[in-house]
Design brief:
Layout (H helix, E strand, L loop, with lengths): L6 E9 L7 E10 L2 E7 L12 E4 L3 E5 L1 E2 L19 H12 L4 H17 L2 E8 L9 H12 L2 E8 L18 H15 L8 E7 L7 H14 L3 E5 L3 H11 L3 H7 L7 E5 L5 H10 L2 E4 L1 H6 L7 H7 L3 E3 L13 H15 L6 H15 L17 E5 L11 H7 L5 E6 L2 E5 L2 E2 L4 H18 L4
Parallel strand pairs: 1-4, 1-5, 6-7, 7-8, 8-9, 10-11, 11-12, 12-13
Antiparallel strand pairs: 1-2, 2-3, 5-14, 14-15, 15-16, 16-17
Length: about 450
């Protein structure tokens, strides 16, 4: 991105989501050189506007940190609406033969659609877990990275892998999985080529074998060793369904959490998607080791996986963020709706005080930043942090009668985004993306969705 200009935002409600949950009924945020220079009550400091390229009147708005998505599968944008009434395993069996037909152009289109939808709804840092690498289909990870750069959001590309195809008792077709050695080699190459650990980085790489039932123990173990040798984070699916629990006991003689610990997959550099079926001992192990969780309430409901024990995780000190998950199990593709869904689902499982509106906002911001290892840079509005923030319009019909702006954002209708900044640069203005053409992205995804269907014999 080009050098960020000085921006002064005033007259808005401010939810900093700092450690004290500091809020201002009327406040300001000043951005300079891509970082937050000042945040506080009332108008901006007298000298803050000097040299400002832009002053924003935030009357009727709430400013929050940018949302952080911690789990996704971008390519699934092109298979939305399929297997509508299936549980996870049946859904995978139906869709793997389709996903096995992806290529570089298809992946780029799916990433473009997924990122556009999230960015338009306030996401400033996105994560994708891509683990399907059919042979001879081009640079699939590079296609995602390119789409993220085009959209203008920060990106954690979790380089996934599978080495257990149908002939080894797995679910994906054999030609859509890699050998163990090839997966490890390609993952290391992705880190060496793309990972940028510097402050303000736009691109991180994580090591991310898919799941216990699609990956060998050797791949799990050596992937963890690779990640720690390279100093990057680890990501996988964990404890998503009852069937997974049964699978782990049958194959490994232990539950998922114990299996993960035996392969080096618990630690403060690890985060797991879903974690729906966690008992007290599992939660205690995650808390003891600092292992994080990407909570995906809509996907869990769509696939009838169950209700994750997020209130118990938070009470134990487990780091928890929010994830869209793939848009074949969350067709909206939006993260800002997950704040509301996380709150509602938690209360279905554990009562009316299970999760508050402010806790839901924390999950989507600083919680996600902690899960991704970036809490020192993003996730809260504090001096010196990166200027990743969102200005939500709350004075329209959908929110005007809710006095509490955080409650309006979390419990009300999806709020329009007036302005979204990533490192001080606008990626959304008045609800529209600034760096990509939404209509062009929509056309591209329609074309590639038809092409994928044809390749899979569905059209």
């Amino acid at each position: 991105m080009p050098a960020a200009e000085r921006v002064v935002i005033e007259n808005c409600a401010v939810a900093t989501v700092d450690a004290a949950d500091t809020e201002y009924a009327v406040g300001h945020v000043v951005v300079a050189d891509g970082v937050i220079e000042a945040v506080g009550a009332g108008p901006a400091p007298a000298g803050a506007a000097e040299g400002a390229a832009r002053r924003v009147d935030g009357t009727g708005h709430l400013v929050t940190p940018g949302l952080v998505n911690t789990h996704h599968h971008f390519y699934q944008w092109l298979t939305r609406g399929m297997a509508q009434d299936s549980n996870l395993f049946d859904w995978l069996v139906e869709l793997y033969p389709v996903w096995a037909r992806i290529d570089e152009d298809i992946v780029h289109a799916g990433a473009a659609g997924s990122l556009a939808m999230m960015a338009r709804g306030g996401v400033t840092t996105a994560t994708d877990h891509h683990y399907v690498f059919p042979r001879g289909t081009g640079d699939l990870l590079g296609a995602e990275i390119r789409a993220a750069a085009e959209t203008g959001v920060r990106f954690t590309a979790a380089r996934g892998s599978m080495d257990r195809g149908t002939s080894d008792g797995g679910l994906p077709p054999d030609f859509a999985v890699e050998s163990t050695d090839a997966a490890l080699k390609a993952t290391e190459a992705a880190i060496d080529t793309h990972h940028d650990p510097s402050f303000g980085s736009m691109l991180h790489i994580a090591v991310a074998p898919c799941s216990p039932f699609s990956v060998s123990t050797r791949l799990m173990t050596e992937a963890a060793e690779l990640a720690r040798r390279k100093g990057v984070r680890l990501h996988t699916h964990g404890s998503e369904t009852v069937q997974e629990e049964e699978f782990c006991h049958e194959l490994f003689g232990m539950g998922p959490t114990d299996y993960f610990e035996s392969t080096g997959w618990l630690g403060a550099d690890v985060w797991m998607a879903h974690c729906v079926h966690m008992n007290d001992a599992d939660i205690a192990a995650f808390a003891r080791t600092g292992t994080g969780v990407a909570h995906c309430p809509s996907s869990n409901a769509r696939l009838a996986a169950g209700i994750a024990r997020v209130p118990a995780m938070l009470a134990a000190g487990v780091p928890v963020g929010l994830g869209v998950d793939g848009t074949a199990s969350n067709e909206s593709g939006e993260l800002h709706t997950e704040l509301r869904n996380a709150l509602l689902v938690a209360r279905l499982g554990a009562g009316e005080k299970a999760l508050t509106a402010r806790q839901a906002l924390r999950l989507a911001t600083v919680g996600g930043a902690q899960v991704l290892g970036r809490a020192a840079e993003i996730g809260s509005l504090e001096t010196g942090k990166l200027a990743d923030l969102v200005l939500w319009k709350l004075d329209g019909l959908g929110h005007a009668s809710i006095a509490d702006p955080v409650a309006a954002l979390v419990l009300g209708a999806p709020a329009p985004v007036t302005l979204s900044l990533v490192g001080g640069e606008a990626v959304v203005e008045q609800g529209r993306l600034t760096r990509v053409d939404e209509e062009q992205v929509a056309r591209l995804t329609r074309v590639q969705a038809r092409r994928l269907a044809e390749r899979a014999g569905l059209a």
